[in-house]
Amino acid sequence: MTRRPRGLAPATALAAVAALTLTACGSGGAGQDGAATGGTPVSGGTFTLAVNDDPGSLSPLTGVSLVQRGLVPFGYESLVYTTEDGETIPWLAESWEESPTSITYTLKEGITCADGTEFTAETAAANIAYHADPEHGTFWFGSNVTADMTATADGRTLTIATTATNPFLLQSTGAVEMVCQAGLDDPETLTDATNGTALYELADATAGADYTYAKRDGYTWGPDGVTSETAGLPDEIVARVIRDEATAANLLLSGELNAASVIGADRARVDAAGLDSVGVLNPIGQMLFNERPDRPTADERVRRALALALDREAVGELVTDGQYLESVSLVNKTPLTCVADGPLWELPETDLDAAGDLLDEAGYPAGADGARDLTIRFIYDGGTPSHGAAAEEVQAEWDALGITTELVAEDSAGWAADLYQTYDWDTGFVQLAPGSPVVLSLFFLGAHSEEGGYNFMAVDNPEYDALAEQALVAPDADTACGLWLEAERELIERVDTLPVADTLSPTYLNGATVEMPGSIMPTSVRMLG
């Protein structure tokens, strides 16, 4: 098998809103011949994009920040490539064969690493084995790669087997970024350098400022036949750390940037300039809750009351800067696995009386002045312009219920400290961006972060856990998706998360076109003249 559409992706029957996320803004992805802007591909030069924070570690093995994960594809590649339309096509693997408990990939010939060594099926197997070891605590462990997986190599073939039925072996193992052997042998070297098979490799880095990736010679194994000689490829890709969105918009309009995400007030003037864009769904208004025993949000009644006290549409209009979309799934990135038949859940309507009763039951009665002895620490991204205004609206709405809301605008250091070290938060605009319910489960089913897992909310939802465990070993994709949808409903009904609002976040382009199935794919970048 060399090419097939994903039966669970947008190409089939996604809900209307979810389907629009791949196309509504999109001329960039389709315009690889330059037709979108009237230009023609011009090889060479530098493609410069803005990122709104420093990525910290560049290792593809660890890290969960959106900026860090967005830069991983510039240095590392996967066995298969998922297009913007949700189609699976060959990348490092030229073909594959699946069974309910195994998948066998045949790798392309001539693949080399950034350090000049050959990338082999043995190295690919070593990657799977590394991720399958719970001691390593990698990004993909427990979701795409599980402890029961084994990997073996024979010539150019890689076989991955599981002890239980897994209906999503291609979607899961095919997405894992492959690290070259020297990187696996010494993972610490991947913090500030790259060692993968990608078309580009890290050439220079200044933390907090910019990261420069240089095009490699002799690259022949890209998706859809991309090589080092493909017309329109830049010689360099530079990611510039620009935390202020207005500054990014100015540099984009002046031509100093080729790509930047603009989602706040400056979006109107960028739109007015007529720039093309590619859009991805952004769960910008998602709220998560800290459920550790010492937090008030450990009590389901408190979480439910907070949800009932919100006017979701009013908050949603602010957090999306007027680009509000109602959420239809907690899975919001390509390939949008299992989204087509959902959701099974419904979000609660505003009901202040019911919210007040729940807080009374939880031990937070209103005093004579209407105030309650309840303080909620609400965190949000200080670098997202619309988050501040929306957080103030949340504060005002909860104030009407007698709740004191402490607003905290986080930077990257604050996020790391509060979510993974001090755990000093109750709720806030904290987003997850999974492409499948299996990846989503990493955060809700997985070990708590104190135990080395990614469940930084300390969620313990037995109903969700039971359904997720069944879904992970379901005999086929249809059965698995049905179980995952039921599991997702349990998260919503228990208020482990509240998807207040989604939006379509555009990445605007000037002088270039790209494909962006999730993040910008470097093999798709074409400079225009």
TrEMBL record:
Organism listed in the record: Cellulomonas triticagri
Protein name per the record: ABC transporter substrate-binding protein
GO biological process, one term: peptide transport
A GO MF label: peptide transmembrane transporter activity
All copies of domain Solute-binding protein family, residue ranges: 88-435
Similarity comment: family membership: Belongs to the bacterial solute-binding protein 5 family.
This protein's UniProt keywords: Signal, Transport
Lineage, uppermost ranks: Bacteria, Bacillati, Actinomycetota, Actinomycetes, Micrococcales
Tagged with keyword Transport: yes
Signal peptide (from-to): 1-26
Pfam families: SBP_bac_5 (PF00496)
Assigned GO CC terms: ATP-binding cassette (ABC) transporter complex; periplasmic space
